């Protein structure tokens, strides 16, 4: 199997993680990527929204049986199911977002990101903005690697600027199914962090994080940093505080991988997508120039490897 | 008759003692809180226990529970079991959001008012449905309540469109003089409208329940509907009324989440709060002030565990810290409260031939 | 003198027995789906394509059937769990917690116990699963009889505790100075992934008919066996008589010399065990490991299943398969017709209402109203908190 | 004739399976006390519930002061000046006396929705003084004895200015003194122009207080007579339709060795109960020891201690020589202790269970009903068939739900279960409460028969006549103490009445 010849009239399917294709999380970004490619190739694309973790396999099989050519599965939780299906349907190409590939499988591309790098930049930004030398973080759950990477990166980045900075942050206390869908906890925790002196809040955790961002926005003169996509576009409620977002270019990554299937250059294995800081939008002119250049340098350094976040080593 | 009167007295004496204890504890707590905030005590563990952040979180977490528990009390005191609080709350949240996100062009206060109303409408609809099923159609009330939950979850998720966005929510209103009291002012008297409503409602309902004509009749039909009926009280009419209002009150809990706390709606965002309110209701022994206390306790334990997480306790696995609220509830329930007493006629259909 | 009366009552009871269990639910289903269809029309969906897709997904072909059965398997057991507790007058909202604890226990055995033959390992794992759930179920029972703590509160709280505890068991740790959980798989933990190792082949539940049904495992058989067993315990055993008496009238049970407290604890333990078994077969038969994504949601469904089945074992079986079909078919439905699969929940709620309120169906279809025993048969679980 | 205040014409009311009232006509005159007699299930309560607007009649009409009226709910009845004291007290247990009386016709503070408790209390005090019905307005119902609860029930009616009073089995739970008080009140009310319908199973009372007597059987009015021209025997025959032996023939006791011995039994009061203080008593084989006493003076506690439903603080209970103080109820019953509980609805049976299942409620675990934990339904049904025969329990089938039986038959069921097996001790608590003369006769015969078979019987009853007719020796229980034990032969109603009221008259024990 593997890459080989270019394909005509590609059939593209997407299986979300528990959630929906327009839920303002990476589910949505991935689906947008699929739609971009579909539009470009002028083909149909379909999706299945997963309701429970136990349905992953069935939902993927749904597409596989209708012999779709590309199946995008979103989220590390689908990794195992994806590999199982890939073995069963070697002719089908699989794109697994956030799925780390222990060893290379010809028809599976794991689209992964260095969340720690995005988080690191967010940390630097936060540490440079804070007046109180106290910053906060509201995170989904440490049961999912990507979130851990964001948090660790964030704290390392912050410390790189202010070694003895005070960081108040927490993971959602509930079960995994709730960790990303509890905006009230996110909001309340953000408020609690603010009461605790934090004046910049980084929120990484789907709806939970969004709750934190919108809460921060309601307090005068506080900053917040979004995650995954550029939340300036997805979360108008957060505009008053949203300096930037620590983004993973899922949309772009998925798009490119699908195109590679189309033109037959698809390769299985680990594929690293870009992760970094989004545009500053309205805050662009409020931020000091040297900070922006500094962030740009760090980003460059992280990409070319001259600089390391220190996470995972 | 001598022994009889003494037992009666003994009972009332117990009540009095309990009141004094509660009052004493409250004062003690206030003292600590102020000290923590004003003095260096706040830097230590006491800061974690009684810091402003914790207290504000407590109230915030308590509000939906208060509404939920009061809803439960309204229904169950009149003899209708209400397992469906979770569903009514969710319906309320959705109702509020549906209107809020479509009245963005209106001035905020107006849009908020409309949204709150729509929440109550949704809730009352659910409450009325519950009453209809359990009274008119003699349906088992636990089943009916469960059905309400499933229905509300299903409908709200099915109809909800994530592209709906709402802007603006109830903002804090500082109550003129009171808000300037140290700490208490900040915690109690600088809040959104619905928070005040929750507190006021708990107190008002308590007095109404135990001092008003409506309250007397409600308690009677919950304990012994036949007796009430023979005294000319229209049992089922009051049950309909209370359950419908109960639905609206639960819905206010949902409205709080959407209109005051989060600002947005999310599928099943009530996240089990309805069930915890159920616990709060039983815990508070079906009395509004009791429920207020229980809800506050639940809120506090949540705030506390959150504070511990935020302050980066690493020796204990975070999972065990997060058990705090639930373990506390069980322990308190098993040690202090002991046996609670449900309205005697709960769950029984009342019919006359 | 009383003879004509007897005749009449006998006749009507006979009518009830014959007619009710068939007619009423049938009409109930029809009505529920009809209302569901209206809901779809109102929100601009096409109910026909939707229901067709649903049918396809539920029973159209072996794959669909397999999925339905797979989904139904845990529902049968959690449904029995809740139903059994109801018979003892207890409202077990805790099935999901018991589900998780059972799962954890069985998976622990399945992963850690090494070098034993399947015929020991598998039963051992199943037993552990049942025991785990039973233990978790017994706690609220003990708290109730010993401290009068209401089971509705305690089971809810124990659900949260169970989900936190099991998450910790498999937690990868490694950051924020946190240690990995005792069951977490080192290899996965290295990548920050929280999950157990895979269950050893000796403890896995084999597939039932590998080349006919897809991934339907022997857990289904276990569930199917549990149905008559529970029925037998309740209806034919003396213990069952005690359970039902305690549920119906605790004072009478005391008077009759039954060990009420013991019966309550034991009933909760059995209920918990059944829920634990549900989680066990899920993991031993389907997932092959435990990870935090596998929540105890089947435990909550158990409540609906039990109520839909009118807390009778056979009813539970039917309603479990029915709901298995609904959820199994949901994805297919959305895939085929684009109708959001949440409508399924709406339909499910409607079915619950219609089935549980024969009076309602009667009114809808202008049937002659009648009082009958089986309405009072439910009276027990209606008396709610008991206290 | 304007002096007819209430008239029921051709009332018919059917329940599924039963015609409770079948073309019943009845009239009540101003200032009259009308006694309504009838067996269990005769239709008395139903008729009264129709008059009070609780049940809607299928046919017939009601006239008040000669005017036809619509009684579609108790509200109407109350408006028309009808008050009813129900057979099963209609009081809200956790509420105070005042709250119970105000309920439905509340006094509020002006226009506010809030209650004016002070005014309420005042009103209650007035009434209780005016009619000599002493109650404490602030007592919680569940803490006061049934006698007082009875007064509260009557006050409820008077508070609503009822001119027509319906009393459904008001004396079932009262002491002789309380009954006399009640009669005094009834006569005063009648004199004051109130009209009263009085339902009871106790013929002595009918003769004592009624102006006119109407009897019902199987839903029909079967006779009317005046007290002057009636005796208990004629009344009994009129209501049952056959001769009834009111005085169960009973030879002298042949008391044998001690079967039950209670020594210095003490326990502290539980909620709403009383404490037992050093209670000691002996019951010999072949004798009936009657425990007389007003409800709520420790009977329940005593009986539950003896049967093992309650733990005792100090003292010892021994049966056939062996100390059973620490034994479980089951151990005691398997040792041959039978127990007829006072509250059949709560303890005696499971309403939703079949007659057959109820008949093995405490023996289901024994052979032949159960073999190695497996029920043998065939054996259970056979057993039931036999007992239903032997004890003449009126039920369609043994599979009928026991809850739908008439009270009398429910009681027979319990008696049958307890006496239908080999026992050496029978503890019978209020065995005939609310049961009609026919059933009473039957149950009394059974108890005496057991005694003559050499079984020791402990009979606890608030019913003086019952105590006097059945007992060989009588112990009087007052506030948890046995204040006297007398030979039945020497005891008189008056003495016992005084003792039950706590008056310690010197007696030859
Ligand atoms: N609510 C009811 N539903 C069905 N049947 C009833 C109901 N109430 C009474 N009956 C039946 O109607 C008949 C008359 O009952 P009723 O209560 O009038 O008897 P009663 O004369 O009051 O008996 P008792 O002396 O025991 O009070 C009985 O056979 C009883 O079974
Ligand atoms: N809902 C009912 N269905 C069937 N029978 C009933 C019902 N309610 C009452 N009965 C019967 O009606 C008759 C009269 O009822 P009532 O409430 O007077 O009890 P009772 O027979 O007088 O027994 P007791 O006086 O000991 O309570 C009884 O035989 C009772 O069993
Ligand atoms: Mg009666
Ligand atoms: Mg009676």
Report what the structure shows.
The complex is a heterotetramer of chains A (313), B (353), C (387) and D (509). Chain A is α/β, with parallel strands linked by helices and 313 residues long. Chain A is built from eleven helices and twelve strands. Chain B has a domain at 61-271. Helix content of chain B is 73%, strand content 1%. In chain B, helix 4 (85-102) packs parallel to helix 6 (141-159), helix 4 (85-102) crosses helix 12 (273-283) and helix 13 runs antiparallel to helix 15 (324-337). Chain C has 387 residues and is mainly α. The radius of gyration of chain C is 22 Å and the shape is globular. Mean pLDDT of chain C is 87; it is low at 1-5 and 369-384. Classes of the chains: A alpha/beta (313), B mainly alpha (353), C mainly alpha (387), D alpha/beta (509). Chains in contact: A-B, A-C, B-C, B-D, C-D. Chains B and C meet through helix 6, helix 12, helix 14 and helix 15 of B and helix 5, helix 6, helix 12, helix 14 and helix 15 of C. Bound molecules: adenosine-5'-triphosphate (ATP) (2 copies) and magnesium ion (MG) (2 copies). One adenosine-5'-triphosphate is lined by residues 15, 18, 20, 38, 40-46, 87, 406-407, 434, 436 of chain D.
- The rounded Rg of chain D comes to 24 Å
Q: What would you call the structural class of chain D? A: alpha/beta
State the name of the first-level CATH class of the largest domain in chain D.
Alpha Beta
Shape of chain D: globular
Give the count of helical stretches of chain C: 17
Q: If you consult CATH, what is the topology of the domain at 72-317 in chain C?
A: ABC transporter involved in vitamin B12 uptake, BtuC
Low-confidence runs of chain C:
1-5, 369-384
Overall pLDDT of chain C, averaged? Answer: 87
Q: Give the helix proportion of chain C (percent range).
A: over 70%
Number of strands of chain C: 0
Low-confidence stretches of chain D: none
Q: Helix tally of chain D? A: 17
Strand order of the largest sheet of chain D: 6-7-8-3-9-10
Number of domains in the coordinates of chain D? 4
CATH architecture of the largest domain in chain D: 3-Layer(aba) Sandwich
* Major beta-sheet overview of chain D: 6 strands, mixed
């Amino acid at each position: 199997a593997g890459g080989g010849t270019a394909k005509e009239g590609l059939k593209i399917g997407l299986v979300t993680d528990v959630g929906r294709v327009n839920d303002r999380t990476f589910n949505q970004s991935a689906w947008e990527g699929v739609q971009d490619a579909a539009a470009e190739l002028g083909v149909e694309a379909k999706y299945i929204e997963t309701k429970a973790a136990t349905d992953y396999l069935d939902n993927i099989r749904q597409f596989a049986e209708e012999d779709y050519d590309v199946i995008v599965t979103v989220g590390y939780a689908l990794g195992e199911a994806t590999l199982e299906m890939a073995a069963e349907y070697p002719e089908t190409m699989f794109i697994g977002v956030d799925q780390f590939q222990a060893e290379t499988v010809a028809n599976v591309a794991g689209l992964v990101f260095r969340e720690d790098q995005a988080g690191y930049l967010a940390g630097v930004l936060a540490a440079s903005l804070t007046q109180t030398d106290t910053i906060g973080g509201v995170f989904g759950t440490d049961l999912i690697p990507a979130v851990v990477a964001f948090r660790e990166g964030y704290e390392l980045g912050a410390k790189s600027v202010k070694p003895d900075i005070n960081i108040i942050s927490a993971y959602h206390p509930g079960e995994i199914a709730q960790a990303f869908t509890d905006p009230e906890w996110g909001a309340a925790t953000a408020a609690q962090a603010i009461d605790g002196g934090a004046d910049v809040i980084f929120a990484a955790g789907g709806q939970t994080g969004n709750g934190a961002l919108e809460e921060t926005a309601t307090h005068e003169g506080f900053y917040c940093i979004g995650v995954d996509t550029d939340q300036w576009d997805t979360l108008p409620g957060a505009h008053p505080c949203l300096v930037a977002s620590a983004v993973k270019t899922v949309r772009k990554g998925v798009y490119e991988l699908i195109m590679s299937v189309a033109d037959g250059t698809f390769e299985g294995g680990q594929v690293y997508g870009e992760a970094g800081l989004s545009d500053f939008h309205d805050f662009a002119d409020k931020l000091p120039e040297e900070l922006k250049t500094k962030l740009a340098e760090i980003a460059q350094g992280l990409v070319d490897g001259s600089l390391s976040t220190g996470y995972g080593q | 008759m001598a022994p009889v009167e003494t037992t009666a007295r003994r009972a009332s004496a117990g009540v009095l003692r309990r009141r004094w204890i509660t009052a004493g504890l409250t004062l003690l707590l206030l003292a600590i809180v102020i000290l923590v905030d004003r003095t260096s005590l706040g830097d230590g563990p006491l800061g974690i226990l009684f810091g402003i952040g914790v207290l504000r979180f407590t109230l915030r977490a308590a509000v939906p529970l208060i509404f939920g528990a009061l809803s439960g009390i309204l229904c169950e005191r009149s003899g209708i079991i209400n397992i469906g609080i979770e569903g009514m709350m969710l319906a309320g949240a959705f109702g509020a959001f549906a209107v809020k996100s479509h009245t963005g062009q209106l001035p905020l206060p107006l849009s908020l008012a409309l949204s709150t109303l729509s929440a109550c409408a949704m809730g009352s609809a659910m409450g009325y449905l519950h009453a209809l099923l359990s009274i008119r159609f003699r349906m088992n009330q636990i089943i009916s309540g469960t059905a309400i939950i499933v229905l509300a979850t299903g409908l709200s998720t099915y109809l909800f469109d994530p592209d709906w966005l709402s802007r603006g929510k109830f903002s804090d209103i500082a109550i003129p003089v009171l808000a300037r009291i140290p700490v208490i002012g900040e915690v109690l008297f600088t809040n959104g409208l619905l928070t005040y409503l929750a507190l006021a409602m708990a107190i008002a309902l308590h007095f109404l329940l135990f001092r008003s004509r409506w309250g007397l009749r409600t308690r009677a039909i919950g304990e012994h509907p036949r007796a009430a009926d023979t005294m000319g009280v229209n049992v089922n009419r009051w049950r309909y009324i209370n359950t419908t209002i109960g639905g609206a009150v639960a819905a206010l809990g949902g409205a709080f989440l959407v209109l005051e706390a989060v600002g947005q709606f999310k599928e099943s965002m009530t996240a089990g709060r309805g069930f915890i309110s159920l616990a709060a209701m039983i815990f508070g022994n079906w009395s509004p002030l009791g429920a207020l206390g229980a809800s506050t306790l639940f809120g506090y334990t949540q705030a506390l565990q959150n504070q511990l997480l935020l302050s980066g306790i690493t020796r204990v696995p975070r999972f065990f810290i997060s058990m705090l609220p639930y373990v506390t509830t069980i322990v308190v329930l098993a040690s202090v409260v002991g046996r609670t007493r449900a309205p005697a006629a709960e769950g029984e259909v009342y019919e006359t031939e | 003198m009383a003879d004509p009366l007897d005749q009449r009552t006998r006749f009507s009871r006979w009518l009830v027995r014959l007619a009710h269990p068939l007619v009423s639910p049938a009409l109930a289903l029809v009505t529920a789906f009809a209302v569901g269809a209206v809901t779809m029309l109102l929100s601009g969906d096409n109910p026909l394509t939707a229901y067709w897709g649903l049918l396809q997904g539920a029973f159209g072909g072996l794959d669909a059937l397999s999925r339905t059965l797979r989904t139904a398997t845990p529902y049968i057991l959690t449904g029995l769990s809740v139903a059994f507790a109801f018979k003892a007058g207890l409202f077990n909202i805790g099935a999901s917690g018991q589900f998780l604890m059972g799962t954890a226990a069985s998976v622990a055995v399945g992963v850690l116990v090494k070098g034993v033959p399947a015929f020991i390992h598998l039963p051992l794992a199943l037993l552990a699963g049942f025991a785990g759930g039973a233990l978790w179920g017994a706690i609220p029972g003990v708290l109730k009889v010993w401290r009068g703590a209401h089971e509705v509160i305690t089971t809810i709280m124990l659900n949260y505790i169970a989900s936190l505890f099991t998450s910790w068991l498999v937690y990868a740790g490694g950051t924020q100075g946190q240690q990995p959980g005792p069951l977490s798989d080192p290899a996965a933990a290295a990548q920050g992934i929280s999950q157990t190792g895979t269950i050893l082949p000796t403890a896995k539940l084999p597939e039932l008919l590998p080349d006919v049904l897809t991934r339907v495992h022997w857990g289904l058989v276990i569930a199917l066996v549990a149905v008559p067993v529970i029925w037998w315990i309740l209806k034919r055993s003396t213990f069952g008589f005690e359970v039902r008496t305690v549920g119906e009238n605790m004072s009478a049970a005391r008077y009759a010399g039954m060990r009420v407290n013991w019966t309550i604890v034991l009933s909760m333990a059995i209920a918990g065990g059944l829920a634990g078994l549900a989680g066990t077969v899920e993991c031993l038969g389907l997932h092959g490991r435990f990870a935090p994504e596998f929540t105890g949601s089947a435990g909550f469904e158990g409540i609906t299943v039990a109520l839909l089945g009118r807390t009778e074992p056979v009813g539970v079986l039917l309603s479990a398969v029915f709901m298995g079909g609904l959820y199994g078919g949901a994805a297919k439905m959305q895939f085929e017709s684009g109708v959001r699969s949440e409508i399924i929940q709406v339909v499910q709620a409607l079915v619950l209402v219609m089935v549980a309120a024969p009076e309602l169906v009667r009114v809808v279809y202008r049937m002659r109203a009648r009082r009958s025993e089986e309405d009072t048969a439910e009276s027990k679980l209606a008396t709610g908190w008991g206290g | 004739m304007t002096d007819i205040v209430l008239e029921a014409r051709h009332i018919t009311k059917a329940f599924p399976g039963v015609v409770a009232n079948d073309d019943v006509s009845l009239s009540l005159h101003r200032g009259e006390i009308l006694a309504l007699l009838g067996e269990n299930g005769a239709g008395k309560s139903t008729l009264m519930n129709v008059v009070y607007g609780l049940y809607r009649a299928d046919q017939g009409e009601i006239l008040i002061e000669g005017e036809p009226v619509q009684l579609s709910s108790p509200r109407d009845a109350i408006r028309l000046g009808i008050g009813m004291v129900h057979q099963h007290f209609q009081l809200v247990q956790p509420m105070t006396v005042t709250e119970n009386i105000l309920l439905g016709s509340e006094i509020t503070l002006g226009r506010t929705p809030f209650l004016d408790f002070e005014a309420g209390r005042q009103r209650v005090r007035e009434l209780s003084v005016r009619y000599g019905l002493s109650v404490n307005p602030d007592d919680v119902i569940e803490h006061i004895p049934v006698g007082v609860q009875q007064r509260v029930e009557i006050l409820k009616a008077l508070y609503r200015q009822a001119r027509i009073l319906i009393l459904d089995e008001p004396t079932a739970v009262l002491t002789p003194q309380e009954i006399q008080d009640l009669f005094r009140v009834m006569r005063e009310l009648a004199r004051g122009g109130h009209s009263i319908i009085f339902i009871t199973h106790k013929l002595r009372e009918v003769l004592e207080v009624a102006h006119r007597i109407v009897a019902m059987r199987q839903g029909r009015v079967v006779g009317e007579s005046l007290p002057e021209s009636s005796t208990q025997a004629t009344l009994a025959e009129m209501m049952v339709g056959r001769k009834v032996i009111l005085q169960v023939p009973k030879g002298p006791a042949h008391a044998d060795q001690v079967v039950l011995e209670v020594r210095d039994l003490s326990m502290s009061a539980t909620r709403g109960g009383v404490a037992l203080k050093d209670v000691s008593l002996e019951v010999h084989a072949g004798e009936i020891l009657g425990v007389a006493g007003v409800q709520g003076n420790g009977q329940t506690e005593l009986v539950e201690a003896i049967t093992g439903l309650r733990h005792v603080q100090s003292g010892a209970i021994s049966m056939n020589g062996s100390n059973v103080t620490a034994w479980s109820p089951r151990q005691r019953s398997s040792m041959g202790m039978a127990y007829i509980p006072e509250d059949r609805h709560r303890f005696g049976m499971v309403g939703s269970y079949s007659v057959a299942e109820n008949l093995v409620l405490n023996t289901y675990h024994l052979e032949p009903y159960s073999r190695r934990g497996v029920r043998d339904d065939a054996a259970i049904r056979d057993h039931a068939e036999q007992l239903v025969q032997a004890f003449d329990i009126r039920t369609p089938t043994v599979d009928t739900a026991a809850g739908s039986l008439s009270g009398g038959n429910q009681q027979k069921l319990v008696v049958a279960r307890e006496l239908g097996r080999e026992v050496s001790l029978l503890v019978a608590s209020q065995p005939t409460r609310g049961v009609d003369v026919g059933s009473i006769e039957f149950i009394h015969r059974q108890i005496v028969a057991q005694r003559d078979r050499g079984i020791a019987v402990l009979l606890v009853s608030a019913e003086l006549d019952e105590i006097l007719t059945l007992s060989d020796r009588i112990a009087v229980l007052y506030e948890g103490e046995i204040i006297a034990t007398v030979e039945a032969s020497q005891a008189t109603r008056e003495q016992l009445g005084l003792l039950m009221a706590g008056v310690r008259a010197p007696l030859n024990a």
